[in-house]
Amino acid sequence: MSFFDRFSEDLATVRAHDPAARSTMEILLNYSGMHAIWIHRISHRLWQNDSTKLAARTLSQFSRFLTGVEIHPGATIGRRFFIDHGMGIVIGETAEIGDDVMLYHQVTLGGRSLEKTKRHPTIEDQVTIGAGAKVLGPVVIGAGSAIGGNAVVVHDHPADSIITGIPAKSRPRTPEKKKPLVDPVEYVDPAMWI
């Protein structure tokens, strides 16, 4: 996927998830979650090379300062990832996030171990995580699930689950509550950015 196609897809993702997004220029200038994702892509590439790991961490900390969103450069993030009201987001080094995932503010994808191993969550495709939720440890959240606000998740949960509580428990997501698949995003002509 080309840079412009990916950029266009990012803009369309914001428009699809946030009815308050009025223009492309507004997204470019004011969406800190999007800024954090763009900077993460650069820091993640730097992280892939041992000689640039320090630069990757420094860039990620600069992004944290600018946006209030902390994404470790080692985290793996899929396409059409959206952070709404991003302040206070923390995504750990070994976190893996699938496609079409949405996070609200104050979400933590953190660890429960100090060992140098897979210690952060795996979030499969089309998962929504509510404000203040904490997903801790190398747990797997199945595709199509939704985690409620302020839930504390420390165990795996199957696909198509509603996950709530402290500690979180899940129940099957009913078909009428399941969000539809995100349609493929079309290219946005740069002339439409304003």
Structure description:
- This protein has 194 residues and is α/β, with parallel strands linked by helices.
- It has one domain (3-176): Hexapeptide repeat proteins (UDP N-Acetylglucosamine Acyltransferase, domain 1, 3 Solenoid), CATH 2.160.10.
- The protein is 27% helix and 21% strand.
- The chain has helices at 3-17, 24-30, 32-47, 53-67; strands spanning 69-71, 76-77, 82-83, 89-91, 96-97, 102-103, 108-110, 122-123, 128-129, 134-136, 140-141, 146-147, 152-153, 161-165, 168-172.
- The strands form three sheets. It has a six-stranded mixed β-sheet.
- Helix 3 packs antiparallel against helix 4.
- InterPro entries: Hexapep (IPR001451), LbH_SAT (IPR045304), Ser_AcTrfase_N_sf (IPR042122), Ser_O-AcTrfase (IPR005881), Serine_acetyltransferase (IPR053376), Trimer_LpxA-like_sf (IPR011004).
- It is an enzyme of class 2 (transferase).
- Pathway: Amino-acid biosynthesis; L-cysteine biosynthesis; L-cysteine from L-serine: step 1/2.
- Belongs to the transferase hexapeptide repeat family.
CATH topology: UDP N-Acetylglucosamine Acyltransferase, domain 1
Secondary structure: helix percent: 25-40%
Main sheet strand line-up: 3-6-9-12-14-15
Number of helices: 4
Distance between the termini: 24 Å
The fraction of residues assigned to DSSP E strands is 15-25%
Catalytic activity: L-serine + acetyl-CoA = O-acetyl-L-serine + CoA
Family: Belongs to the transferase hexapeptide repeat family.
Pathway: Amino-acid biosynthesis; L-cysteine biosynthesis; L-cysteine from L-serine: step 1/2
Organism: Rothia amarae
